[in-house]
Amino acid sequence: MDKKRVLSGMQPSGRLHLGNLIGALSNWVKLQESYNCFYFVADWHALTTGYNNPSAIKDSTIDLLVNFISAGLDPEKSTIFIQSMVPNHAELHILLSMITPVGWLERVPTYKEKIQEIQDKDINSYGFLGYPVLQTADIIIYRAHYVPVGVDQVPHLEISREISRRFNHLYKEVFPEPEALLTEFPKVLGVDGRKMSKSYDNAIYLSDSPVIVDNKIKTMMTDPARVKRKDPGNPEVCPAYQLHKFFSNSQELSEISEGCKIALIGCIDCKKILIKNVSDRLTPLWEKRSQLLQKEGLLMDIARVGSEKAQKFTAETMNLVKDAMGLSL
Ligand code: TRP
Ligand code: SF4
Prior knowledge:
Structural class: mainly alpha
Largest sheet: 3 strands, parallel
Strand content: 5-15%
Bound molecules: tryptophan, iron/sulfur cluster
Radius of gyration: 22 Å
Mean pLDDT: 95
Number of helices: 14
CATH class of the largest domain: Alpha Beta
Number of domains: 2
Strand order of the largest sheet: 1-2-3
CATH topology of the largest domain: Rossmann fold
Helix content: 55-70%
Shape: elongated
């Protein structure tokens, strides 16, 4: 029963799409088999940039939780919770904020980028600067060994390692230095051939109905060189084929690839196979989603039970922390 601990979270900032499923969630689901996993909705983090419309955060939090569970995160195996329901995170955050040099935070590349990028609201706040400190508290309060993240989160994790090291050095060894578990996978492309992203309006969402998914794939971009049915194509430049790579088996892939190059298979038939495979993959998600949405209270019960478990585990860490700092009264 001495499994290593994994922690990861997502900020509730809108709907999840196939890219999030392939890149993050399905990996989280797999990790449940070998690790003691903690997964959560980082609703406080969403306030750092969304403080002017906090009620939207509540809806996104619920939606994200629905996605977590329907994608296969299992409350029996993992601790699944909402950040704001585990106030110990906030307590550790305060203590860590005392030992974190401001210069470390100002140097985080995502901080500088976001300050430049976000023009429509003022994010020059104390809370936004402290984003990585809160994120550190989220991680090390579970004394987590691994954090599955995308490459974009690596600078944040680096600062978490530095803050834990500083704590251990100043007081007493309490925290393992969390390591990134990088999920390496090729970019998932959207229906227009660019990277799948909310901001490009080219995504296939986990909340899309079967009919919508069907339509999005039918109208998805293909190799532009295939104007007529008899024109040969190149699957490597075809966004639909890139999706096939995630959803179709190797025999289908080689048949499609060969068939496309000699115009034996047309795009319509090729996409029929894709639609079937994507639907097969998403069917269990669609079913769980409708179950969760039908049974009122079920979702919040899951969140409550998970958050209580998390609060209990983190209380042990807080005792260690206060002992180490000589603060226990
Ligand atoms: N920063 C992450 C995101 O943008 C969310 C997050 C908050 C997180 N705390 C974390 C991720 C701790 C991993 C570990 O989605
Ligand atoms: Fe793309 Fe398939 Fe059409 Fe080839 S046949 S261009 S792989 S959709």
